Inverse folding.
């Protein structure tokens, strides 16, 4: 039974007067992996950052339309952005652990939201690291700096940090673009695992990656959502000529 | 030959620099060490009377050293918290337009001629202190420390601001994305990430206060006593050297003692420099 978790309704995004997203309307299903693909500058990352309102930090950015998360519009007045971001975790392009210990990295979110008891934090840190498939590699060095890990481990640490606040949704902005093929494979495997508990929206440059790990794929081009469908359909018999051209590598 | 020429030029210039440094050190030691013929090292460091014009001269530098340390410590205590707050404000709080105005202003203030500050200390601050606190003289440790603080704030805050601005946007984004407010992000991520650089900026400010001469010469009161409160006058090493060097016969014990004071100052700044380098190195290891 598929259930809609995130619903974009006529979303337009402007940077000053430039319109970078045009009437984006589609639904993200709960506990699925939704891939956003498209050439550079097509607006896929900008759209991702609309879902946790990270565009708020860009003074020139302005959003029109509605994005419903769990049924309520996150762009309505009086929305608690802090609570929203706690519910919508994010993993970035480049691994960006804080310059603090592995433990403190993962405990950062829970501590922000008021968890103080040591045993509860310990448990959250452990569960998050287990969830990010990193626990076995770091359980004996939780007090060492997170920045001392390898790139792939750092990215899994960032995933652990993001799931430590127990979000429903996990946004991933090209999470493997800075990693080698081995580390990429591990993250992809992890994403397939993560969707059992979280709804994942992943931006990727890599079409094979989208085909491998996603249930649904949205193809963006110059601010338009060209096509959105189940991944196998998108990659075998897309409706739109532009989708086909992009997927077969004729441009992009 | 054409390839090697730039290398030879660079090597030549840098070794000239090092040679001059060594020469200055040699000169300082050659002129300063002979003081030990007139007075023991222990009496020089820990003697608490400085009467260089007596016959024979009494050369106890303890009050001067304490004066230097006191004025440096007091000015740092006043200036460093201010500098940090200004740096955080400029880097993290102020809107872009305000930042673009404040940053050059801070940098300009860093070049403020210290003698002008000395004037302000003598003409404005001293009379005010004298009246407000009903003191005999407003030229004292507090006055000099406030002025030195004013002198160091622009330097430290400008460097600390650069350290804060250099914290990658990625780290801030990660913190915001976890639901942190701007304040929480600044306190828990940005400042700790920039801490090694902030500390070494602070030490640079401390060093500036330590070596400053004009302000303390004009505003510190100039009494070679061990200060018991911030309202006592002091006579730091720098102002002692500046005031007395012109009036002492070359080669006399007093002359050598003043050079020795220079050596002490040099060792202090060297110590702070090494500390700052160590902190930077340690910080790099963490990141």
């Amino acid at each position: 039974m598929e259930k809609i978790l995130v619903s974009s309704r006529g979303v337009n995004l402007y940077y000053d007067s430039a319109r970078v997203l045009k009437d984006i309307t589609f639904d993200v299903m709960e506990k699925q992996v939704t891939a956003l693909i498209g050439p550079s500058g097509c607006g896929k990352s900008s759209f991702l950052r609309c879902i946790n309102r990270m565009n708020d930090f860009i003074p020139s950015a302005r959003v029109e339309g509605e994005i419903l998360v769990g049924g309520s519009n996150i762009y309505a007045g009086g929305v608690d952005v802090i609570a929203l971001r706690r519910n919508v975790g994010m993993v970035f392009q480049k691994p960006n652990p804080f310059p603090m210990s592995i433990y403190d990295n993962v405990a950062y979110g829970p501590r922000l939201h008021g968890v103080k008891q040591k045993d509860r934090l310990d448990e959250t840190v452990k569960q998050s690291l287990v969830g990010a498939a990193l626990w076995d590699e770091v359980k004996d060095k939780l007090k060492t700096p997170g920045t001392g890990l390898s790139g792939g481990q750092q990215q899994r640490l960032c995933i652990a940090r993001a799931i430590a606040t127990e979000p429903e949704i996990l946004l991933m902005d090209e999470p493997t673009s800075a990693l080698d093929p081995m580390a990429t494979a591990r993250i992809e495997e992890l994403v397939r695992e993560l969707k059992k508990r979280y709804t994942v929206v992943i931006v990727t440059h890599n079409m094979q990656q989208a085909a491998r790990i996603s249930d649904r794929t949205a193809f963006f081009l110059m601010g338009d959502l060209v096509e959105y469908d189940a991944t196998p359909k998108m990659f075998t018999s897309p409706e739109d000529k532009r989708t086909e051209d992009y997927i077969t590598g004729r441009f992009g | 030959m054409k390839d090697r020429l730039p290398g030879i030029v660079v090597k030549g210039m840098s070794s000239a620099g090092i040679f001059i440094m060594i020469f200055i050190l040699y000169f300082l030691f050659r002129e300063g060490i002979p003081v030990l013929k007139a007075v023991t090292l222990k009496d020089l460091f820990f003697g608490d009377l400085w009467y260089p014009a007596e016959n024979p001269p009494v050369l106890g530098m303890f009050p001067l050293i304490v004066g230097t340390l006191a004025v440096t410590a007091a000015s740092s205590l006043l200036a460093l918290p201010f500098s940090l707050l200004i740096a955080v404000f400029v880097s993290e709080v102020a809107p872009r337009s305000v930042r673009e105005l404040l940053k050059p202003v801070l940098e300009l203030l860093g070049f403020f001629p210290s003698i002008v500050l000395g004037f302000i200390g003598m003409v404005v601050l001293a009379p005010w202190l004298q009246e407000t606190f009903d003191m005999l003289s407003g030229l004292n440790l507090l006055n000099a420390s406030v002025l030195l603080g004013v002198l160091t704030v622009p330097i430290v805050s400008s460097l600390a601001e650069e350290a804060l601005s250099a914290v990658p946007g990625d780290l801030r984004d990660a913190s915001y994305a976890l639901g942190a407010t701007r304040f929480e992000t600044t306190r828990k991520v940005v400042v700790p990430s920039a801490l090694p650089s902030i500390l070494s900026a602070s030490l640079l400010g401390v060093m500036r206060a330590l070596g400053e001469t004009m302000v303390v010469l004009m505003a510190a009161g100039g009494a070679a006593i061990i200060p018991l409160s911030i309202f006592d006058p002091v006579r730091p090493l720098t102002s002692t050297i500046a005031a007395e060097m012109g009036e002492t016969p070359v080669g006399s014990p007093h002359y050598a003692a003043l050079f020795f004071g220079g050596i002490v100052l040099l060792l202090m700044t060297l110590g702070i420099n090494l500390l700052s380098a160590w902190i930077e190195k340690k910080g790099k290891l963490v990141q």
Summary: The beta strands of chain A are 4-15, 18-29, 33-37, 61-69, 72-73, 88-91, 169-173, 199-203, 216-221, 224-230. Chain A touches chain B through 26 residues (CB under 8 Å).
